Amino acid sequence: MKAEVVVIGSGISGLTAAASLAKRNRQVIIVERNQKPGGALKHFVRRGIPFDVGFHYSGCLGSGEILRVLWEYLGVWPHLRVYPFPSEGNDRLILRNSGKSVRAFFSYERLEDELRQAFPNEAKGVATYLKALRDICDSIPFYNPDLPLTPFLRGLLPSAEIGLAPFLTSLIKDPDLQAVLASPAFLYGVSPRKASLAVHAMVAHAFISGAYAIDGGGQAIVDAFLSVFRKAGVEVITGQEVESIFVTDGKVAGIKTSEMEIHCSQAVYTGHPTGLLNLVPEGTFRQAYHSRLQGLENTTSMFVVFGAVDNPASLRDLTWVNHYAIPSGLDILDVNLICPEEGALLMTAPGRRYSDPALSGAKRGIILMRPASWDEVAPFSMEAGKARPASYKKWKTQSADRLLDQAKKLWGFSGIEPLAIGSPLTFRDKLGVPGGAVYGVQHCLNQYNPGAKTRLSGLWLSGQGTLMTGIVGASLSGLVTAGEIEGLEPLWDEVRQCR
Question: I need a labelling partner for 345 at 20 to 30 A (CA). Which of 84, 232, 400, 495 fits?
Answer without folding.
Answer: 84
